## 1
Amino acid sequence: MHSALLAIDLFFVIEKLVLIVAIVSISLVIAMYETYAERKVAAFIQDRRGPNRAGPFGLLQPLADGVKLFMKEEIIPNTSNRFLFILGPCLAMLAAMMTSAVVPWGGTIDFFGRQVNLQIADINIGILYVFGVVSMGVYGIMIGGWASNNKFSLMAALRGASQVISYELPMGLSLIALLMLTGSLKMSEIVAQQIDGWYNVLYQPLGFFIFLVCAFAECNRTPFDLPEAENELNFGYHQEYSSMKLGFYLFAEYINMFISSVIMATLFFGGYDIPFVNDASLSGLGNWLALLQGLSLIIKVCIFIFVFMWVRWTIPRFRYDQLMNLGWKTLIPLALVNMVVTAAIVLLKSNGWKF
């Protein structure tokens, strides 16, 4: 009996390790090619070619950029706090990677008689976990800016911390309205409800819009890239960084953009659900169905990533006072109104009213 339990635990550990390696690898590869896609989208919008030298159509450009960052000389300023200077980019990268642990990437696959969920951790407080990990990312920015012992880096880090804290409030309020409708913090259950019914974006269009705007601010993307305003702050909070430490900060931004897109697709657009297709009718496909569901999620994510890039090369950067006014005087009141209206509708429906 004891040996059987030990074997089950061993299989469980191996299963989760394989999932972790696969999801981390996919996240890194997608983040790597986001840099290529961004340069190509910018080139298209600006009527030029973009990367086209390294490999066919420039497809090896991200690898060339990665090799360049690895090979560059690593410089740590003498006046910096060495331990915190190294900890900052590591913390930013770690926080970016940990968020994907609670995302359901597909249905279940049959592996030698074992039903394996394509989700690392199906915890009942999945959304709270995401918010907790995302809030850790600001420490990577603050620590890196302060440890650099550079006034421009510190100023950019303060901007970044204020921005993230300000926009987490309307983002959280927009999700409270969503949770009133779903009645669960569990990501897999939220996806299952959308598969059985309608996508949440139809019930919460304002909540989705608020979440989308806040995602731009949380990822420090234009028009909310004030912490990296190079024409004001000499490249921002990672000005003193070089080599792969700089690469970690840049990579963390693209991974955050990827994970934000995954979260939006999961909460508002059915996650891995294949649109306009009854998944039950495809049950005969076996394990291929889970792969098709994962592909469906990736396609939705790619659409969101394109929106991130499109906005960057279309809308100019806000002033810092405009950024704060939008968060505190516009998005938070809108999120509160949305939450109150949603609460009223849920209460009336529970009393027998029909909408």
## 2
Amino acid sequence: MSSNIYSVAAKARQSRPIDPSEPFDVSSVKGKTILITGGGSGFGAAFFRKWAAAGANVIIGDVDDSKGESIVRAVRIATDNNNHHFIHCDVTDWQSQVSFFKAATKLSPHGGIDAVVANAGISDLNPTFNTPKNLDMDEPPKPNMQVIDVNLVGVLYTTHLALFYLPRNPGSQPVDPNKRLGGADQSSRDRHLLLIGSLASLCPIPHQTLYGTAKHGVMGLFRSLRCTAFTSGVRVNLICPYFVETPIINGPGRAVLAGANLAKIEDVVEAASRLMSDTSINGRSLVVGPPLKLVETEEGEWQYSGRDQNGISTEVSLWEVHADDLENTDVFIRRIVHLMNAAHEMNGWLKWTKDLGRALLIMVEDTTRISYWRRRN
């Protein structure tokens, strides 16, 4: 990774690209307190079971009290650990999320939160944002914005709270791509926010306008945060699963996907576990797709083979996306800074003096205007 003064990747503490063949140890989550929104079913429930079995203390939030309480009871018995908890949480309700984080902090064995997974999400069962079928109406019906509220606004609420609570985690250390912290070591706690995107974060899905808009927003959130969250020592990562066999795929969706390869939920859990347990990974995003047999061409491109070709095929289910954004930014900054410096040198001290004088004049005018307004009121 470049370390020169223009390197955004270095300043954002982005870790090196992920090598899916590298082993990782999920047991490093032992002793961590992990919060998961939407933890009663789907990905959230699968994450819960995996990390709880590895020794983490997991606190889930969900609107479905029955599912949430049921899975917590089962996992407590399976792990012989009563530090797993369910708290009712409606991610679209700010105060509900505030209560979730406050209660979780009190329930945490060490009084802090090590990781937050912004997992809660719904699919658009009845898309209403497309062209109305009846164009003879005086006006179209108001669209149902629940998908935006859950999948984007809810994620923003979770993120905002995570960026407040994670740096307050007792004994935690700022993100460092060159160091892996021991999860069970109370003196070196983690600060990790894991966002859950989708294939819809990268490309449109027909008739899923609001869902795609929300998931594109999650991708935009990730790309922005990985340039700024490091200032609070928080590492931020993202997974974007392809279509996976979960309840979120409705009947029409299953009909469209009939005959297609689907991603495996265990691969999604594996990808999330890699990001969760390896504390050196920061600013990385993984697409989780169906396992495919691929052959690398002479040009370095992957080509689908469909079968093992004499042992030279490689099974791939993980791809890193937007991996070089910050490096490309570096190139832009080098160019723009060079041009700006050249222009500055040509302008000389005369323009600098004029600009500074203009700035001071504006400041005086603003102060005078404010004083006049205060006297009048």
